[in-house]
Automatic annotation (TrEMBL):
Keyword Signal annotated: yes
InterPro entries in UniProt: LolA/LolB/LppX, OM_lipoprot_carrier_LolA-like
Signal peptide (UniProt feature, chain positions): 1-17
SUPFAM superfamilies assigned: Prokaryotic lipoproteins and lipoprotein localization factors
Protein's name according to its UniProt entry: Outer-membrane lipoprotein carrier protein
Superkingdom: Bacteria
Species lineage: Bacteria, Pseudomonadati, Pseudomonadota, Alphaproteobacteria, Acetobacterales
Entry keyword set: Signal
Amino acid sequence: MKRALLALLFLSGCATSGYGHLPADQQADVHRIETYMNGVTGMQASFNQTGPDNGVSAGRFVYMPAHLRLDYVTPHTMELVAGDGHLVLDDMDSGAVTHLSLKRNPLGLLLHYPIRFDRGIQVTDVRRGQGSLQVSVAEADNPSQGLLTLQFSDTAGKLLLIGLQGVDARQNHFSVSLGNVVEGVTVTPTVFTPPGG
């Protein structure tokens, strides 16, 4: 399971910068996503995560622009806090604490504020379905190292983040699905204090 989690953490991006190469309707969709993500004042959800070894984990997801926290309860207690260019994972089961830079990590693409998908980021794909929208992004200056996909429900013109998917340079896949998503919650800044911080 920890290998699956680290696969999520070590993703890297690819391709050239921006989304000006996309058709006008897809550019509009990307702009909607940017506007939505930058307007989130606080979000909480339950999550289920599947990694490259098909290991499944679950817990609580807390997000606000530039900050993310995952509290794992399955298969055992772990705490992940990301923001300010760094990620800290505290595995309460083993006592191990992992520190990572988000500089070359696509998870960092989710933690910029404001989120802009035209500055050093490449939008590689936009897909619209029945009541759904997703965008795939990567760092522009590190070709073929990985990909991050943000998934949204899109109902009556309203977006809601419902999942993340990715693949790393070794073709390890992960997915995180969100449930019971609540937006507009007040999140105390100390929630994003790294373990031991």
